[in-house]
Amino acid sequence: MVAIEIKPGIKWIGVNVRSHDLFEGLWPIPYGVSLNSYLVQGEKTAVVDLVREWSGSSSNFLQQLQSAGSEPRDIDYIILNHLEPDHTEFLRNFERMAPQATILSTPKGIEMVQHFCGISEQVQAVGDGEELDLGGGKRLVFFHTPFVHWPETMMTYEPASEMLFPCDAFGGFGALKGILFDDQVPQADQAFYYDEMLRYYANIVANFSRPVLRAIDKLAGIKVSAIDPSHGLVWRANPGEVVARYKRFAEYPAGKAERGITLLWGSMYGNTKIVTDAVMRGIAQEKVPMEVFEVPHVDESYVLASIFKNRGIVVGAPTYETKLFPPMAHVLDSAARKSMTNKKAFRYGSYGWSGGAQREFDALAQALKWEQSEPLEFRGAPTADDLRKAEELGGLFARSIREEA
Ligand code: FEO
Question: Which of 33, 266, 312, 350 could join 295 via S-S bond, C-beta 3.0 to 4.6 A?
């Protein structure tokens, strides 16, 4: 792609990354990811957020800058909203190409510039609400929004164009498919980007939902004509709808998740699998939306997105050596690490020869404030009665989700 003008004097100069590397060393990006950077040109010129040196992205970035009619030597300010290396890894080299540029970030961000990039000169901390006048009618205002999702994070706002540059907030996985603006993307692809926004949030931002809500409150009085995040589409069709969607994500851990069910199941020899079919029959009769994942055969990135989104969690897993089936324990531990609290839960599974899985699940449910319904355990292979009971309990659980006030 080449630089794209968003408003006069404001251009997207980001890059698409298509790599089989895991994002943050953890999360698969089969559809890639964009690292968005923006050029704001008044009498002075600023770059808002940079890129990682990843799969050719830094040389692509320099080509983008050139396609916008600029060179590194033209840059007066480098604005760093966030120091995570997907936006800053190139700084160490770019700073050598643009030694005249001043690097601006929050005070904590400036500390991190030293720690991550070894740079301590030509840096300047900006205060919360501080303005930078670029001349030519362009100003940048910096709002500190800590812990969205690192301690140093801020958002940058350009008042004349009403553009908000929030870095990770409102962003998502998924490289751009030749289109930058949400209102130019086909309807089906919009759903793709919303799904990838949710996955990004659940994987990366979930633990910081309270700071997200604080940031949304803080910026509530600002008029925004477009949201220009550091990953994914520019949201200009209806920025308020995107903010509302993000706010809904941030409220999921408080028990306000969607009225749906995530069913996770794993089976050693097929006994828990047979019961899973019965549980699903019961849920299906209540017509509650359900997403089903066999553990460990689906990457936990996708499982976590579903757990995060849904109010109801069904866990089908046997006892393994007096504890929970290990791959299920692993994915539930990941949900706990991401503070996916305040759910309704139902567990079933084979007791094996000792039991123990339910005890481990009880402790986890208590820690995460998951309200459990009556569990179901069966000895060895399920009987016809066990299957009837599984269908009944699945139905009761689904109804409790459907009828929740
Ligand atoms: Fe896109 Fe937190 O970095």
Answer: 266
Tokens 């040196």, residue? 53
User: Cα separation of 349 and 377, whole Å?
Assistant: 5
Q: What is the 3-state secondary structure (H, E, C) of 284-331?
A: HHCCCCEEEEECCCCCHHHHHHHHHHEEEEEEECCEECCEECHHHHHH
Please give the number of the atom of ligand 1 that sits closest to the Cα of 167: 1
Q: State what percent of residues in the chain have pLDDT above 90.
A: 97
Q: Which two tokens stand for residue 206?
A: 């979930």
CA–CA separation, 157 and 140 (whole Å): 6
**89 close to ligand 1 (CB < 6 Angstrom):** no
Sequence-distant (6+) residues with CB within 8 A of 400 are: 312, 344, 373
Q: Measured from the CB, is residue 87 less than 6 Å from ligand 1?
A: yes
The closest-lying atom of ligand 1 relative to the alpha carbon of residue 153 is 2
Amino acid at 129: G
* Atom 3 of ligand 1: nearest residue by CA position: 84
DSSP-assigned letters across all residues of 39-53? EEESSSEEEE----S
H-helix segments, 102-186: 107-117
- Average pLDDT value for residue range 29-44: 98
According to the model, what pLDDT value does residue 190 have?
92
Which residue's alpha carbon is nearest to atom 2 within ligand 1? 84
pTM score above 0.85: yes
Please provide the average confidence, as pLDDT, over all residues in the chain.
97
Cα–Cα distance, 99 to 4 (Å, whole number)? 26
Q: What is the pLDDT of residues 47-100, one digit of tens each?
A: 999 999 998 999 999 999 999 999 999 999 999 999 999 999 999 999 999 999
Bridge partners for 315 per DSSP: 264, 347
Q: Could you give the residue ranges of the DSSP H alpha helices within 342-383?
A: 357-367
Give the CA-trace dihedral at 247, 248, 252, 253, to 10 degrees.
Answer: 10
Q: Which atom of ligand 1 is nearest to the CA of 85?
A: 3
Per residue in 98-156, pLDDT (tens digit) is 999 999 999 999 999 999 999 999 999 999 999 999 999 999 999 999 999 999 999 99
- DSSP letter, residue 23: B
Kindly report, residue by residue over 305-326, the tens digit of the pLDDT. Answer: 999 999 999 999 999 999 999 9
CB of 86 shorter than 6 A to ligand 1? yes
Q: What angle do CA 104, 109, 115 make, to 5 degrees?
A: 115
Q: Residue 356 is which amino acid? A: G
